[in-house]
Amino acid sequence: MSEKRNKMLTMWVTEDEHRRLLERCDGRQLAAWMRQTCL
C-alpha cells in the first residue's frame, strides 16, 4: 500500500505558464504529471 499524501502545494502561474504546462503533460492530469516529472 502506498503512503497517503497529506501535504498540498499551491503555486500561482500566469495564463501562458498554465497553457504551457498543459501542453507538456500530453493530456494527462496535470498534478500527476508534475508529481512524476518533478519527484
Automatic annotation (TrEMBL):
It comes from the Bacteria. This is Plasmid mobilization relaxosome protein MobC. It comes from Sulfobacillus harzensis. The lineage of its organism: Bacteria, Bacillati, Bacillota, Clostridia, Eubacteriales.
